[in-house]
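Weekly structure sync, notes
Attendees: PL (lead), two postdocs, one rotation student
Agenda item 3: pending single-chain targets
PL asked that the sequence for the first pending target be pasted directly into the notes so everyone works from the same version. It is reproduced below exactly as submitted, 289 residues in total.
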Amino acid sequence: MTSRYLEPVLGWYADHARDLPWRAPDASPWSVLVSEIMLQQTPVARVLPAYRDWLSRWPTPADLAAVPAGEAVRQWGRLGYPRRALRLHEAARTLTERHAGHVPPSYDALLALPGIGRYTAAAVASFAFKQRYPVLDTNVRRVMCRLVSGAEFPGRTPSAAEWRLAESLLPAEPPIAARWSVGVMELGALVCTAARPRCAACPLAGECSWLRAGRPPAAMRPVGQRYEGTDRQCRGRLLAVLRDAEGPVTAAQLDAVWPTPIQRARALDGLVADGLVDTLPDGQFALPC
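Predicted structure, written out during the meeting:
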C-alpha cells in the first residue's frame, strides 16, 4: 500500500518542508525530545522562541536536571500546559541518573521516561535516531483518515486500527520510514489542514478517498476549546504571578489577579495538586523546589 504514496510524499516534503531547528542534521536527540514535548497542542510559531531559549539555557539533560523544577516552570513562560515543563524536568533527571545524561535510542527506554507516551517515544526514536516506528499525531491521523478511510476527521483518540494502518504504511527501511513519517506530518500541518485543506496542492489528491467522495463533512466536527473565563485561564494568571516574582508570594497577591474566589481557590488547589506550586508553612506560595 505504501508504494503508491511514498514517492509523492517524499518528493513533496523535499520541496516544501519547513526549515525547523529540531530537523537540522546536527539536532541532538535532547533537542528533538524538547521540541516534541513543546509541540504538543501548541503551534510551531509559539514554540520556536521558547525552544531556542530553553536549549540556550539547558543544552543537555544534565543542565536542566541541575536546577529546581520551579526554574523549568518559570522558563516555560506562557507556552501553555505547564505540566509539560515538569515532565521535561523529570525526564532530564532520569536521563542524568540512569542514562549518563543521554537520550536513549531504545523505544522501550524512551517509553519508560517520566511523562513520555507512545507517540513521543515513537517520534524521538524516528526523528532523532531514524528508526522505524509509526508516528501518530493529530496531523498524521487526519491525513490517513481522509486518504484511506474517506472520513473528514478521525476519532478523538487513536484507535488500535489506526496504529495498525500507520504501521502498514511505513516503508521497510528505517531511515526512509522516518522521513515518510515527518513528511506525512508536514503534509497534515501545511496542506491537509483541519479547517481549510488545500486539496489542489496535495501530492496525494489522486489517491484520496475523502476527495473522491466529494469531501463529505463530518457529522461531528472538532470544536475549539473556550479559554476566556475558564479554570485554565485562571491557573495561567496565578502561575504568572509566581513566575514573575523573585520569591514566594502571598495569598493577597494571587487574589488580586482573579476576581472569583471559588474559582481562584479551585485553580490554586489544582496547581498545588499538579506539583506546579508549593504551599509554604507561613501560608505563602512558591514555584516547586
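Discussion points:
- The first helix runs from residue 3 to 16.
- Strands lie at 278-279, 285-286.
Action: rotation student to compare against the earlier draft before next sync.
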